[in-house]
Amino acid sequence: MSTQKGGYTPSLEKFLDGLKSRPVQASVDLLVSLLKRRQIKGSEACATATAHILLQIVARDKWTNVDQLLGRIQLIGRKLVAAQPHELATGNIVRRILGLIRDEASEDRNDATTDSLRPASPPVPVPSQTSSPQKPVRPPALASIGSFARTQSMFNLLSDPNVFPSTGSNTSTPGQVSGASTPILNPQATNVSALRSEVIDGIQEIMDEIKMVDEQVQTYADIFIHTGDYILVYQPSRMVQKFLARAASKRKFTVFLVVDPSSAIDADNQYASLFKSMVSSGSNVITILNAGLMAYMSRVDKVILGARAITAQGGVVVDAGAAAIARAARERRRSVIVLGGVYKLSPECKLLPESQIEWGDPSKYVRFADGSLVSHVKVKNAVSEFLPADHVDTYVTNLGAHAQENLHTIITDHYKEEDIKFELYGKAQR
Amino acid sequence: MPHRGIHPRRVVPKTGRSSMSTASNEPPAEVKPKSAEKAQDTPATTPAPTNGEPQAQGEKAAPPAAPKLSNAELKAKAKAEKQARRAQAKAAQNAAPGGGSTPTSAGQSGPQVTEPKGNKAKGKPDGGRPADSGATGKAVGSKGSIPAPLPKPEGLIPECFSHLSMAKRLPITQADKDVHPTVLAIGQKMAIFGIDESIARLEATLLAFKKVIESYTTPPGNTLARHLTPHVLNPQIEYLSACRPMCFSMGNAIRWLKLQVSKIDPDVPDSEAKKLLCSSIDAFIQERIKFADVVITEKAADCVQDKSVVLVYGRSSLVEASLLLAHSKGKKFDVIIIDDPSEQKGQILAKTLIEKGIRVTYSGDFGALQSHVELANIVLLGSEGMFSNGALYGRAGTCDVAIAAKDHGKQVYTLCETINITERVSTDSLTFNEIHPDHCSSKSFRLLYDTTPSDYLSIVITEISSAQPTSVSYLLRKLEDSN
Questions:
Q1: Domain count, chain A
Q2: Same-domain check for residues A126 and A228
Q3: Same domain, residue pair B103 and B240
Q4: CB neighbours of B418 closer than 8 A, spacing ≥ 6?
Q5: Do A241 and A296 fall into the same domain?
Q6: Which of A336, B81, B228, B237 fits as disulfide partner to B131, beta carbons 3.0 to 4.6 Å?
Q7: Residue A139: inside a domain, yes or no?
Q8: H or E stretch at B237
Q9: Is residue A87 within 8 Å of A351, Cβ to Cβ?
């Protein structure tokens, strides 16, 4: 992750730290600007930030029925996506949460057999006054996610007596969470608050999933990496590094680590832990400073790439330069393995390869001091690009390894039809 | 050749061909044949003391001049000598710049340059020298015979690439005493890639050899045809290939030169023979380099259409000249430069082009390569060599560009002088390649070249023809016939 610790540079951590002290709308605006300035970038950071902000909206915004909430989330989702349209993970999380809300709402409808959540139901008073007995405190959920304090603080916030001026019901038995078991109050409000807690739990699960992806993906490492293999990785993300390190704990192989020559100096620091774990287990790491990798392909057995996003058709958004590598691998019939969490799997189907090239900071190669080049040459520096599906052999997600044909199944498992159709990118693509 | 930009990474002392004249005029002051000899002495198995040794170990082996030595004494002496040499080699390495590459260099030239001074006049076996083996170099062969292997863990070549050659950057102090000052100078320039392109290295080599021949006098009792090659030219060739593995064009030209030397009639007087050789070198340069470049640039410029977009990779002087020529013919075209981020020579090209008013798009790496190629109409590639199966030996990354061009159905023109064509065959990039001497460890590694299969090249433009890449072998045969 490119976020920096310390200093005054805004980062994901700082954004999350200040999240509960800010009004929701302020947080939304801040996040949009952070995304626009690429101060939060990378699919994991964007996904985490999106999940957190949407959780805030669910928890703290005043909404009285499902449609209102859905509308609100769609609106915020569009804003976030428009702020960094190349980052598909943002849209994925928005869609997942929309689907989650729909799921929970339909369950509630069945459970309560009330018509309280009719789409056309008129706005009801803020539920905070009445819903106090059904505190969305869920110890089981807390236990499962007890490892991170931030989410706990969300619950503290929800149980904040200022927000929910309740009387002693904080200690009520944790089992009474489902809408059916609530005391008799305004049924709508009851359902809203129950729904709220259900949705919050769901979002927590998504956040957990994002956190756990690295660990889950790396369990498949020894299936793909064998002793004596020559593995080529390109500017490996943390996930890819962990994947290699895990495989190195069981097998001895050689890694061709392709680094960006312009950052080769700090490449040592960047990949220090990878070097350490690889070398200590007897595997080799060779840092390669070439840009065109065709020269090495006759030696390479497998190419492992970290995905920024994976589309339903199997195309992958990768770091710029990886497409040329995958093309070279195809030339020599080397297998290309793409790693990425399920949350990177995007149902978006109207993507054009060209639109997925993100152009970035041209000063990477041409310094601004270089007057003649700056003023007369059109300098282009791609940050990410699109890798067509036919250049990829296998996709490894936290759910396992998939063929290209299986991706559709995963998408239908994770997204709702109506959310897939939802035009998140309407604004972004004009 | 006007390029004003300074290479961002390395301070390059005057690149290009223009540097030759200056290089050959000033005799380097730091030529010390004696110390040079010491540093890379004979392997200890030869009991005969060489000239350099007495000073080196005068104190150690007390009776060096003892009239009779028993076998045991001889052995002990040899041992002492060996140790002294090791100590010296170590010292030389420590003093030598460019640390990592030196451990091999001491041993590298050892077996080849063993000949002690005294033996000079008596011929020595020459034939199978790897001197003209071009880029294959002799890294592997010589590695085994290193008398004092002092491998630093840093400078190790990863095992899977150990068969590839690498510039040894032989310091001047370790050069053979017979190496001509001009050759010493260009060797150093080649070692630091000051003279980098295959054709520029060829020209520099030939001009330097002309100097060598001019300063040569046949010793009494020898004939030029028999003496020049083994005793004068070969040390130069060895030194040059120790500085940096020779490229195919140098190998070709040196073979040609040796042939010319051997053809000289023993009855021809020295001065006349030298004049003859020099004029044939001049003719060779004119014909195979200068004239070839003119013809190729002309042809390539014709390939550039008006209002088209030309994509190039890195900087090749032929491509640059072609673009400038096309521009001066009044054609309007755009240029997309894809660059190797480690070299950034494309920026030099970009500056040259924008000076002439050509519109340039620059991409510093291979990001979005496909989309760049899509915008182009044709691709112009320079080359370091051609294999006889039509594969192109070019700067690392050339192949990726060619593949992308093929994917989008763009014409790929390769510019290549026929002297760069080798009769060798290569199917992958690891058969012939060169490791960058600054990046030769597991910490950082870089290959300099790659091989592009002929499928990805549309047309190869040489001074003789513009033809399919697979017809290169016919070209080669045609050239041999004409010689």
A1: 2
A2: no
A3: yes
A4: B288, B292, B462, B463, B464, B475, B479
A5: yes
A6: B237
A7: yes
A8: helix B234-243
A9: no
Same domain membership, residue A178 and residue A47: yes
Contacts of A320 in chain B (CB under 8 A): 365-368
Which residues 334-363 in chain A show a CB within 8 A of chain B? Answer: 354, 357, 359
CB B139 within 8 A of CB B103: no
Pair (A62, A181) in one structural domain = yes
A364 touches chain B (CB under 8 A): yes
How far is C-alpha A94 from the geometric centre of its chain's CA atoms? 10
Min Cα distance B1 → chain A (Å) is: 19
Name the helix (H) or strand (E) containing A286: strand A284-288
C-alpha span between A414 and A402 (Å, rounded) = 15
- B241 in a structural domain: yes
Q: Tell me, what CATH number does B409's domain have?
A: 3.40.50.10470
3-class SS at B166?
strand
Residue-range definition of the domain harbouring residue B322? 290-482
Residue A254 contacts B, CB cutoff 8 Å: yes
Pairing verdict, β B165-166 and B434-440: parallel
**Last residue of some domain: A159, A182, A213?**
A213
What gap in Å lies between CA A273 and CA B298, rounded to an integer? 54
Residues B186 and B263 in one domain: yes
Beta strand B378-381 with B385-386: parallel, antiparallel or unpaired? unpaired
Inter-chain CB proximity B365 and A320 less than 8 Å: yes
Closest to A175 in 3D by CA, of A141, A205, A212, A206: A141
**pLDDT tens digits for range B39-76:** 444 344 444 444 444 444 444 444 444 444 456 555 66
pLDDT in tens, B186-236: 999 999 999 999 999 999 999 999 999 999 998 988 888 889 999 999 999
User: For B430, which of A288, A299, A324 is closest by C-beta distance?
Assistant: A299
Q: Are residues A86 and A175 in the same domain?
A: yes
CATH classification at residue A224? 3.40.50.10470
> Structure pTM?
0.74
What are the chain A neighbours of B351 within 8 Å (beta carbons)?
Answer: 372-373
Task: For residues A159 and A252, state if they share a domain.
Answer: no
* pLDDT band for position A9 (cuts 50, 70, 90): confident
CB-based contact B429 A290, cutoff 8 Å: no
Same domain, B151 and B24: yes
Q: What is the Cα gyration radius of chain A?
A: 24
Both A150 and A225 in a single domain?
Answer: no
Neighbours of A185 (CB within 10 A): 15
| Residues of chain A neighbouring B162 (CB-CB closer than 8 A) | none
Domain housing A186: 12-213
Q: Are residues B302 and B449 both part of a single domain?
A: yes
CB B207 within 8 A of CB B271: no
- Residues B368, B239, single domain; the answer is no
Paired residues of A385 in beta bridges: A318
Assess if residue B284 is contained within a domain: no
A168 and A303 part of one domain: no
Beta bridge partners of A230: A254
- Work out the angle at residue B197's Cα, subtended by the Cα atoms of residues B193 and B198, and round it to the nearest 5 degrees: 115
CA distance A215 to A423: 33
Which residues of B are less than 8 Å from A380 in CB distance?
A: 361-363, 368, 372
Cα distance between residue B386 and residue B396, in whole Å: 14
Q: Which of A163, A191, A213 is the last residue of a domain?
A: A213
For B300, half-sphere exposure in the C-beta direction (CA atoms, 13 angstrom radius) is 34
B358: region left, alpha or beta (phi > 0 left; psi from -120 to 50 alpha): beta
pLDDT at res. B139: 39
Domain check: are B190 and B89 in the same one?
Answer: yes
| Overall domain count for chain B | 2
- Distance, CA of A111 to CA of A95 (rounded, Å): 24
CA distance A412 to A410: 5
Amino acid at B150: L
